Amino acid sequence: MKLLIDDAHIDAIKKIYAAYPVSGVTTNPTILSKVGGNPFDTLRQIRGFIGEEADLHVQAVSRRADDIVAEAKHIVNLLGANTYVKIPAVPEGFRAMKILVDTTEIPFTATAIYTPMQAFIAGQCGASFAAPYVNRIDNMGFDGLRVAMEIQKIFTANHMETEVIAASFKNSQQVLELCKCGVGAATISPELFDMLVKNSAIDSAVDAFIADFESFAGAGNTMLSFR
Ligand code: E4P
User: Fold this and answer.
1) 8 A C-beta contact, residue 122 and residue 110
2) N or C: which end of the chain has fewer CB within 10 A?
3) Does the C-beta of 109 come closer than 6 Å to ligand 1?
4) What Cα–Cα distance (Å) separates residue 171 from each residue in 134, 135, 167, 190, 197?
5) The CATH homologous superfamily of the domain defined by 2-190
């Protein structure tokens, strides 16, 4: 399962990239609104940092299919290969997806997915990824993990190439459960990245090893202090 950062703040992205195995960055209009300014200034900065090979997901905001297609071309033109245009999985979005598949090679991610049927149709329309919103589905009184797992099963059972990119998480256990099912990707906030392996038992074990070493080697010494 690939891990991506669901954020647009360049400093936060740099910090997470330095510490974790990350395959790219996802954004949405709300995430971009938290940075403000020209969205392409932000997105170009992200692309420049993550490099040409990494995945960058950027959402089109038009409502009509033809306008979504025009936005998709503009986004990929400015941000290059491996840029996935996020398109809401609604009827006008499906129409745009079909036009993109028939007339371009622009890859796209179906977003705003709350039901398995949305993901199935988006997959049939040629989406590279489908993004179920785990936590938002939970907040509606349904089971977000189950929806994401059902989507994974549908793609596998129907031999579809579309991958799940699960989104909207509130805790690391949700990410782990989807990892066990082999979903293609999860996009998570910088805050949640730091929670993935946050555990006081781990910190205590590391502290104890250092204390034991310093008990015979002297405070502040490491293996570098000896030869
Ligand atoms: C991903 O496609 C979504 O834009 C995003 O992850 C939603 O997350 P949120 O529910 O935390 O806003």
Assistant:
1) yes
2) C
3) no
4) 10, 9, 11, 12, 11
5) Aldolase class I (3.20.20.70)
pLDDT tens-digit map of 195-214: 998 889 999 999 999 999 99
Question: In testing the pocket of ligand 1, which one of 86, 168, 189 has its CB within 8 Å of the most ligand atoms?
Answer: 168
Boundaries of every domain in the chain: 2-190, 197-227
Cβ of 167 below 6 Å from ligand 1: yes
Please answer whether residues 155 and 118 qualify as being in contact, where contact means their C-beta atoms are separated by less than 8 angstroms. no
How far apart are alpha carbons 54 and 72 in whole angstroms? 18
d(CA 104, CA 82): 14
Alpha carbon distance 104, 221 (integer Å): 60
Contact call for residues 53 and 80 (beta carbons, < 8 A) = no
pTM above 0.85, yes or no: yes
- Contact between 43 and 77 (Cβ < 8 Å): no
Q: Which residues contact 44 (CB under 8 A, 6 or more apart)?
A: 78, 79
State both tokens at 153: 């099963």
